[in-house]
Amino acid sequence: MKRAVFLAAALLSAPATATTIQYANFDSTAGLQLNGNAAAANDGSRNVLRLTPALSGQAGGAFSATPIALSGDYSFSTRFTFNINQYGGLAGGADGLVFVIQTNPTILGGTGGGIGYEGTPNSIGIEFDTFNNGGGYNDANDNHIGVDLGGSITSVYTLNTLPYTLKSGTDLTAWVDYDGANDLLEVRFSDSGNRPIAALFSYTVDLNAVLSAPNAFVGFSSGTGSGWANHDIVNWEFRDTYAPITGGVPEPATWAMLIAGFGLVGGALRGRRRTTALA
Asked: How would you class 150 by CB atoms within 10 Å of its CB: exposed for 0-12, middle for 13-18, buried for 19 or more?
């Protein structure tokens, strides 16, 4: 029996309010724009969103089919669990996945080191990179997290020492929060599903200036080259306000995809400008 729940509600008599996207699993991909090689798949025990299969030369992306209305300070919070598995080829597998906010849901970046993100204008990406493309990309190894802007995979910030191995074949969970009132982006990372108290790193950025658009779409991209892997999203929650998601993974029966607001468009990702900072 499929346990994922999909619910969309439009409050046509009220102004745009808030958007929450929730997938406990991917028994259904309703509400998503799938690009390239992205598709629902069964990993042997559950249905996942597979951005790329473990084959060479793949690129895939999945984004909210409904735009999120940008207003205020552009704040957001998201949480997702992913699993990179069946890796092989050059350097024992590649290339990773990216959480992306972009202004066009159908744009898909390059394969391989492009991680399905390269060349995507008006975007921000948090890359979970499993291939060392060298110093020109601010890569120092094949296990790092970086902040990418405007479709460039030369990260503006890279953390090269991580507490867990990205291509481990195990479930890993990430939290990305953007506090637009302070232009502060924070990333957390765990193998337990429980949100760490301290951020793995923080970075200051003006999201409004980066996106330069009244609407955006949120989701993921991935790519493979001569190294490959299954890049699977296991579950996902997104809120278009700064409301950090705490606790472990909810039971699937408690999850839904909720969109409240006029025309299924919610309000509030947020932003202003600052410089780089570490936590």
From this structure: middle
Residue-wise burial string across 31-68, b where 16 or more C-beta atoms lie within 10 A, e elsewhere: bbbbbbbbbbbeeeebbbbbbbbbebebbbbbbbbbbb
- In order of 124, 138, 216, 227, 278, the CA distances from 204 in angstroms are 12, 18, 20, 33, 9
Domain boundaries, the chain: 19-264
Distance in angstroms (rounded) separating the CA atoms of residues 77 and 185:
10
How far apart, in whole angstroms, are the C-alpha atoms of residue 145 and residue 172?
Answer: 13
DSSP secondary structure letter of residue 161: -
Average pLDDT over residues 93-120: 96
CATH placement of domain 19-264? 2.60.120.200
Taking only the tens place, the pLDDT of each residue in 199-254 is 999 999 999 999 988 889 999 999 999 999 999 999 999 999 999 998 655 555 44
